[in-house]
Amino acid sequence: QVQLVESGGGLVQAGGSLRLSCVASRTIFSIIPMGWYRQAPGKQRELVGIFIGDSTNYADSVKGRFTISRDNAKNTVYLQMNSLKPEDTAVYYCNVGTVWGQGTLVTVSS
Asked: How does DSSP assign 47-79, residue by residue?
C-alpha cells in the first residue's frame, strides 16, 4: 500500500504563503484522485483541492489563493497557499484514494 508523507506546515502571518509537499512511496497513476484536505479544530475534514485525472477542483474558500500541482517524476503533489487567512489554520492531509498522510499543521496568525 502506498505511503504518504507531508511536509511544509508551520506558523505564518496572515497574508503570507506556504507550500506543502506530499511524497508518495510509489508511482500514483493519474486516474486515481490525489489531493489535499484539511481539518480545523472542532470541525469536519474538508476538501481543499484535488486532482482528478488532469483536472483540478478546489473548495470555494481557497479558489484563487491555493494551487495544487504535481511532479510525477518525484511522486509528489504540492499545495501552494497564498494570501493565507487565520481561518486557513488546520491540519492539512494528503490523500490518494483511501490512503491518508499523517498531516501537517498550518497555523495562520492574525
From this structure: EEEEEETTEEEE-TTTTTTEEEEEEGGGTEEEE
Q: What is the pLDDT of residue 63?
A: 97
Which CB contacts under 8 angstroms, 24+ apart, belong to 22-26?
A: 22/76, 22/77, 22/78, 22/79, 22/94, 22/101, 23/74, 23/75, 23/76, 24/75, 24/76, 24/77, 24/96, 25/75, 26/2, 26/75
Q: pLDDT 10s digit of each residue in the chain, 110 long? A: 889 999 999 999 999 999 999 999 988 777 788 899 999 999 999 999 998 888 999 999 999 999 999 998 999 999 999 999 999 999 999 999 899 999 999 999 99
Chain mean position to CA 43: 17
Query: Which residues share a beta bridge with 68?
Result: 79
Phi-psi bin for 33: left (phi > 0), alpha (psi -120 to 50), beta?
Answer: beta
Angle at 98 between CA 79 and CA 11, to 5 degrees: 30
